[in-house]
Amino acid sequence: MKHITKIAVIIALTLAFNTxxxxxxxxxxxxxxxxxELKWDKNVVSSDNRAGFTAxxxxxxxxxxxxxxxxxxxxxxxxxxxxxxxxxxxxRDYLDLPINLKYKLQIPVLNKIIAxxxxxxxxxxxxxxxxxxxxFSTRKWNTSWNVGFGAELFKKVQIHANYGIGMTKAFEYIGxxxxxxxxxxxxxxxxxxxxxxx
Length: 198
Fold this sequence. Notes:
- The protein is mostly beta strands and 198 residues long.
- It has one domain (25-197): Porin, CATH 2.40.160.
- It contains one helix and ten strands.
- The protein has an eight-stranded antiparallel barrel with strand order 1-2-3-4-5-7-8-10.
- A hairpin with a 4-residue loop joins strand 3 and strand 4.
- The protein is elongated and about 70 Å long.
- 27% of the residues are buried.
């Protein structure tokens, strides 16, 4: 019994090391547009979506045989909205850190031309700066959950559409239209990017 256990452990370790050795690590540059949507917990505040932009670098760690991998980026993201309560534009700049689990569809011949994929994972955003907001306050950290899809073309270019669902409070409003309880808002957004992989 001890011999069988030792052999099983050796086989498991060998497979684990081989899997790590097979992992492909690639780097790339990424840029695109963001469309920001604010979700408020009360109807006191209304806002319009506005387009922003994002740019930065990314790293992909993939297991070619199974199609699973990790997609992590460091991005500068500019988001903005029109707020009708105080007739102002809310502009924000973030250091965006999305870390996604990625699954690429494995079709051997087709993958040289196009490889569809899906992604999901957390997104951590650090506020770098924002505009004068009057009675609005912005949190320094904002966490979202990403769900996305895309395709890799010719093993070099990745086109990716992603929706970020706000998980934590991103804004507060305490103004004349609110009693003592602040109105809280979350940051939801679409991001459409193109990346070039090296």
